[in-house]
Amino acid sequence: MKLGGEANKLIILESEKEVEKFFKTNKDPFIVISGGSNLLIDDKYFNGNIIKIDIKGITKTDHKEYTVLEIGAGEVLDKVINYSVNLNLSGIEAMSKIPGLIGATPIQNVGAYGQDISQVLISLKAYDLSTNKIVELSNKDCEFSYRQSIFKNPKTRKHLILSLKIKLSKKPLKSAPYKAIEDYLKRNQIEDLSPLSIREAVSKIREEKLPDPLKMPNVGSFYKNPIVSEATLNRLLSRYENMPYFEDSSKNSKTKKYKLAAGWLIDQAGLKGYSRYGFMIYPKNALVITKIKDSTNFCDLMKFSKIITKKVKDQFGIELKIEPEIFNI
């Protein structure tokens, strides 16, 4: 989003040994980042250091029906997806073209078009800041839910992710993982469901719907899709019968929950293309906020966001929550 103030130093750590050595002696305030593509930092000067975990490397272990990849947290997510697709492995191809590094994906259980990292993660290595030790956490330990994990929860966040171990299938998909992909394949008369075909479809869909962050600063989806009860869903459907919704697949809910499309809510509130304070709701995708003036700042973005969330709350009774990570100095 090209926002945020200055800090003392940027420190890049490229191995597990460097991470251990640094944090055992460090006494300065710090903020840990990955690629920074899904991060918002306010404009104040940060009297501390920015730490980037940049451990590289991919190792591959083949099995009869699947392959396990162990990946350093500093690897670019889309390069990992391209690598896996060229091996004809399925499981993360629908996450193609999401910017950032793979080490950040468990933090808010990154996903798109029917796939997310929790579906393929076996385990990960992390540096535990409370014990100054490297630990291995299983998928269950991460407590994944929709855009959430122990790494994002302020009460449980104490780990710096160093590497991931993921399991990808050698079997082809039996159907498209998401309706938008299915519609694209039908529209273009494509029957191929190989990982490469799904990756190409997702890449085209994203090009049509999302602005290039290098040309038009943005953090992708600015709001989470709200999760609601069946009673709330039925209340809204009685007024908006064409409202899109999906059953929430999170495992941690004992009752049925439903996911609403935040972009649709914003669009129906008449906000697509709306601009103020140097920011704009992207005309092709109401879920994206773009920066349109260089002089605007973090406070302006928060004011702009409050206008959006208030209008949606007033019309639908639904409170939108910001998806990117926010650091208030």
Q: Could you give a quick summary of the protein structure above?
A:
With 329 residues, this protein is α+β, with helices and mostly antiparallel strands.
Please describe what this structure looks like:
By secondary structure, the chain is an alpha+beta fold. The chain has 4 domains: 47 residues, no CATH class; 112 residues, Uridine Diphospho-n-acetylenolpyruvylglucosamine Reductase, domain 3, CATH 3.30.465.10; 31 residues, no CATH class; 101 residues, Alpha-Beta Complex (Uridine Diphospho-n-acetylenolpyruvylglucosamine Reductase, domain 1). 24% of the residues lie in helices and 26% in strands. The chain has a 5-stranded antiparallel β-sheet with strand order 5-6-11-9-10, with helices on one face. The protein has a 3-stranded parallel β-sheet with strand order 1-4-2. Strands 12-14-13 form a 3-stranded antiparallel β-sheet. A hairpin with a 2-residue loop joins strand 7 and strand 8. The mean pLDDT is 94.
